[in-house]
Amino acid sequence: MPEQLSRIAKAMDGLYEFDREPVSTDKLQSGGKFAAMFAGEHVAATEFVIGAFFVLHGVSAGDLLWGLLIGNILAVLSWTFICAPIAVRTRLTLYWYLRKIAGPGVTLIYNIACAFLYCILAGAMISVSSTAISLLFGVKVPRLGEFLPTSLGWVLVTLAIGAIFTVLAVLGFEKLSRFAAVASPWIFIVFIAGAIAVMPKLGIRPDLGNFIEVVTTKVWNGVPVAGQEKLGLFQVMFFAWFCNLAMHIGLSDLAIFRYAKKWPYGLYTAFGVFPGHMLAWMASGFMVAAIGREMHPGLMAFEAAGIAGVFGCVLAGWTTANPTLYRAGLALQTLTPGWPRWKMTTAAGAVTTVLACFPVFFLKLMDYVAIYGLVLMPIGAIVLAEHWIFPLLKIEQYQAGKKGWTFNWTALLVWFATLAICFALPIHLYFRWLPGYFIALVSYTVLMASRRRS
Amino acid sequence: MKKWTLGTAAVLSLAACLVFPVAFFLGKMSEGTFKLLFLVFSVVWFVLAVAWDVRKNKEAK
Known about the structure:
A: mainly alpha
């Protein structure tokens, strides 16, 4: 078993070999490139669903505005003060830094967890695209509260979309990524154009005289639809903060910020989150209100912008599912290192497509996003403790790397124990990650310090 | 076409995609016309933006 594990670890290292060395100074990127990259990164198919859910969950207009504003500012600050400083000091990806801290065994488990979570996320993107294509074929889309596939038509459309996305991801990830960069500003325009175009349907007059009245009574009126929990200011704020938790607090964006000249480049994430996680969410709120508060992203886009809207919905799903499938394939490749990339991407695509047939993943997307961030968050706390707190307390850093441990059992214990505590905490799911973060930070530091004394 | 011409034309087509919904909202255009023009200029954006991207990459190489 240990031999097998060491073989897997070696093969896994080979997969990530290209970014093993810290980024050299000649490869650092300008602030403008960071701004452009983030601007194109945060407008995805899931924005159709999340923005609409705020309406369905009965968020009031004031709570939405303040919640998104504060939550997104907190997200930008998390990138700036937590993720970027570690990235510019180490110039390493999370994969290699975690390997030094927790050992290849923990890194392997982390990779498997990521692969599984990516597959579900890509599945939700495929489901969103399926709602648009279903519309063209007159297929009934699953309604709120449904967990299982509702019709053969839905399954067939979803399987077809998933198969096409997977084949495209296999055929040429890099060219598709370039096409995604072209599609991204247009997808954002679809959101904005859609919101403007549904205003007459909502009764907003061209002089905007009744804008506030319509917005507060017909869009974010504070009344949830039947069966949906009411969300308030703090839930909206925390959602906006944690929806990229794995990237900022969870530190997976070390991979990006290791190319930054200095840590304040974290502020450039504002170019992504404010258009994507504020304007696009608000736009989809208008669109869902205009179709009678029904969770049907395809119909929302079609009613708002016609055939172009349908394409926007499909493209939003595809352009975001594509890199997610690629990342899932890469992470899964650690399990079967002998397999070529195309085979792994196909396997990830097959799993993802089957998951996409289950509407629960896009109809419970907000809870899933919370769980996704929560699962990976303790790793960010462990890395932060090791990077900043250990030198202050004179605890030896990077013991796993120095002593050749396969598993840093303390890190693994802290990770799983934190998750167990978080899932048992008697507070709203959206708030659990914050106490969990401090639990992981303190317990890892204390346990590693006590290890030094013993 | 030169790179900057392609880039400018692409950005203008994207801007046009925003003008039509505003015109529809202000009552200057019917819903059908807005949706048709939005679709047409969306196609124009993709054609020009892809050509622009290809040209940029060729020059970079």
